[in-house]
Amino acid sequence: MADGAIEEQGQEQDLGGEEFAADCRARVAFEVLANRWDSVIVFILGEDGPMRPRALITRTGGISPKVLNEALRRLEYNGLVVRRAYAEAPPRVDYALTEAGVALQGPIRAMGAWAGRYAEAVLEAQTRFGHRRDRRARILRPADGRRRPECS
Predict the structure, then answer these.
(1) DSSP 8-state symbol, 96
(2) Quick check: pTM over 0.85?
(3) Gap between the Cα atoms of 10 and 34, Å rounded
(4) 29 and 79 Cβ atoms separated by less than 8 Å
(5) Tens digits of residue pLDDT in 26-35
(6) pLDDT, tens digit, for every residue of 19-70?
(7) Would you state the pLDDT for residue 113?
(8) What are phi and psi of 126, to 5 degrees?
């Protein structure tokens, strides 16, 4: 759409510049979703509600405590989660989505649907690309390890 606008529920919204240009606000969304674990955590909190860090580690299946802590701080910094500390002994902390985090559920689900439909094609393309790159490396480097000159 022209002039950096998007349609949202029948109305246009200015994104602050040319679409996806350096000054476009849509880049904020891409930066938020770019981290591997951030979207997973937002999705899980959206599905299961507020959770303690240990429960998030279990539910994500594969994230380390250090990486989870970094992701939660980043999500809190971006205003997508809120940290709640309870005055109890032993201390208890949980994390919940903010309004902005809840609003991300739709785009995250859309990306999940896209992945369900196209992930296999993407993985096949990556495999083909890897084979091409490996074949080129074998052509340029014979078994003895010496590099052959490239043709011009």
Answers:
(1) E
(2) no
(3) 27
(4) no
(5) 888 888 778 8
(6) 656 667 788 888 877 888 999 999 999 999 999 999 999 999 889 999 999 9
(7) 94
(8) -65, -40
Element (H, E) at 106: helix 105-140
* Cis? peptide before 91, omega within 30° of 0: no
How many Cβ atoms are within 10 Å of 101's Cβ, its own excluded?
23
Q: How many helices (H) and strands (E) does the chain have?
A: 6, 4
Q: What does the alpha-carbon distance between residue 13 and residue 15 come to, in Å, rounded to a whole number?
A: 6
In 3-state terms, what secondary structure has residue 143? coil
Give the integer Cα–Cα distance in Å for 131 and 1.
38
Residues composing the chain: 152
Q: Using CA atoms, how far apart are residues 29 and 86, in angstroms rounded to an integer?
A: 31
Quick one: pLDDT at residue 148? 46
| pLDDT interval class at 2 (50, 70, 90) | very low
Q: Are 31 and 24 in contact (CB under 8 A)?
A: no
Cα separation, 118 vs 96, whole angstroms: 31
Q: At 127, list the tokens.
A: 């495999």
